[in-house]
Every structure is written in structure tokens, then in C-alpha cells.
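Lab notebook page, bench 4
Experiment: in silico fold of construct C2
Operator: M.H.
Input chain length: 113 residues
Purpose: comparison with the prior construct
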Amino acid sequence: MPVWGFIFKVMAWTFLVCIVAQVFIAGIATFSDTSSWETHKSFVKIFALAPLLMFLLTFVGRIKGPKRWVSLGLFVLVVFQFLSIQVFSSTGIIAALHPVIALLLFWGSVKTV
């Protein structure tokens, strides 16, 4: 496997693990310790750009097929994730999409891995 493919694979697995960890942190904040919301907000900043980097890596590494477009889709979902809380948090219906988008991020991450 070329080096770019290996880097893509490591990034895909890392992103998946980060999604699971992020949901776990949200669970802690919801059911145990509300101060964990700060961790939930800050942790995402560590991995939010990973799908964009993965998408760009598909061109550098000549990775074709669904991985390219799923990576782009994951990045778009991350953007919607931020918007659902930062911009639309006062509108309950759109803000309520936040956990649904998390499910889609998980599914897309599994698909990419």
C-alpha cells in the first residue's frame, strides 16, 4: 500500500475513534457531569478538519471511488454539525439535528474505514 493510502487509512480510523469518543463525552455530559460539555466543545476542534484533509489526500494519493466522496460528505456533515449548534441553536428543530448528524458521521466514518 502506498504511503498516501496508509496515511488515509490511519486518518479514517482516527476520525472514527474520535467520533465515538465525542459521543461518549456527550453522554458523560448528559448523564453524569455537565462540565464535560466544555470538553465536548473543545475536543471536536482537534479532529474537525480531518475529513477535509482526507478528501484532499484522495487527490494526492490517487485514491478514487467512494472514499473520496464520502470524505467530502463527512466534512460537509462536520460543517452542518457546527452550524446546528452555533447558528441554529435557538431553533429547536434544526438544533435537534445535531445528534442525527452525529449518527451520519459515525456511519460515514465506518464506511470510509
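Observations: The radius of gyration is 15 Å. The chain has one domain: 3-112.
Next step: discuss at group meeting.
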